[in-house]
Design brief:
Length: 296
Amino acid sequence: MKPFSLFIVLCCLAGSTLAAPASYVLENTEVRDIRAQALKRDYQLYVALPDSYRQGNKRYPVLFVVDANYSFPIVRNIAQRLNKHAGMEEVIVVGLSYANGDGGVYSRRRDYTPTTPRKHDYRSDMPGRQPAFGEAKAYGQFISGEVFPFIAQQYRVNMQRKVFIGHSYGSLLGLQFLLTQPRTFEHYILGSPSLWYDAGVMFEREQAYAASHKDLPASVFFGIGGLEKLAAGKKRSRSEEDADMVADLREFDGKLKSRKFPGLTTRLRVFEDEDHASVFPFVLTHGLRAYLTSAK
């Protein structure tokens, strides 16, 4: 081998032993492991603390956001930006991860959906495991019964000012709370809920709730992209393929308003030119503004 070639090889070998670049870490964030005892699964909580957290004894509103693998940094960063540049009060953000060892699609289908669809042809994203559905009630009990006490014990949160944040299937989980235990959260931010799921089962749940209750004490902000509608020429139905999500959400919000529940406040915003993938930051920003006050 020529000396120059040998030099190149040695340099490459030396370079391969260098330490990998450091990961980017969000400031004032923590990761906590938590066991869901009844579910016999392990999860993580991603916690973002406000800049002033170490400076006093203040208790902060707390935002609980599902699909945290995607949404946690978005919620954390937008909440901080609204505080610094728009005067909104500071918050603590708690992101709920997917179950350890589960694929994201598998975990959210199981944990966020209210039922097993009566008709479906879904495939699992986890080889060797059939897709799972319909554990929203049990997962919700994990949040209220285990996550809440843990967060209340470990952090200075105001548990009288809890906000639920979800999108798509995550909003189905929010509706599960809303139509069973609405006081679990003081405010709900629900983006692009998959109301077509299981042939529109949440419309059935809403009707059943209204038939047996005189009030629904909750504050809800609904948001959706204006492009989440049915393509021209197609007939709307309660199926994923033929769903008009904008029309579905307008119908659902209209039904809630028609009940005239004295304790219910809902707001609906359609963000034109946004689709299912792009709308979440807009829903979040306006949903926070609908609840959080300006910093004093």
